[in-house]
């Protein structure tokens, strides 16, 4: 335990040194990603002023997942139309920027970060590959939309967005959308399924937890208003 404490004190010194460099370069926020094998450092970072704002989650979808699992009676999926795609992109930009502004990020930074995130999703061969959108219908009525991607090494499928229309929430459609994602990942040879969720999105976080996702990393943020 003493060795762990010593290592964490050294890590905190390194973090503080990095903060000073970033502050001198004109940065007013610092973002930090904590992988699962370092989750024990979370209390230390919390005391140092870092706040959790998002989580990376993952689950295995390899041999244990039966490809083509039935979605349930009355469900069907179709590829999103071009008009639907444009509507989703506008909503993605608004929502992403709004979350960052709520975290205290300047408006200009929040909007530019949202545009960069969307560009990254749309870029073929990027870290997550180009994305695709699927609409979910239940008994002929549109109930939700799913945004999917894939890692460059084709081992991991990504869920970029799970969207259930407000009037249809609380009826299990979110679980069906995640089953669509698992079926797609397994059928294309992926062994894992991953996603990122903002901390404030408790409804989605609860959905992912009960469907078998677990945390693989934690994203933290600290505002550099005063240097230690």
Offer a quick outline of the entry.
The chain contains six helices and eight strands. By secondary structure, it is α+β, with helices and mostly antiparallel strands. α3 runs antiparallel to α4.
List the topology elements.
Elements: H1 2-24, E1 29-35, H2 42-47, E2 51-60, E3 75-79, H3 82-102, H4 107-122, E4 132-138, E5 141-150, E6 156-164, H5 173-187, E7 192-198, H6 202-210, E8 214-223
Parallel strand pairs: 6-7
Antiparallel strand pairs: 1-8, 2-7, 2-8, 3-4, 4-5, 5-6
Give the H and E element order.
HEHEEHHEEEHEHE
Figure out the total of helices. 6
User: Widest sheet: strand order?
Assistant: 1-8-2-7-6-5-4-3
- Overall residue-averaged pLDDT value: 86
Distance between the termini: 26 Å
The share of residues in extended strands comes to 25-35%
Total beta strands: 8
Note the main sheet.
Answer: 8 strands, mixed
Shape: globular
| Low-pLDDT segments, ≥5 res | 124-129
Helix/strand/pairing category = alpha+beta
The Rg value, from CA coordinates, equals 20 Å
The level of helicity is: 25-40%
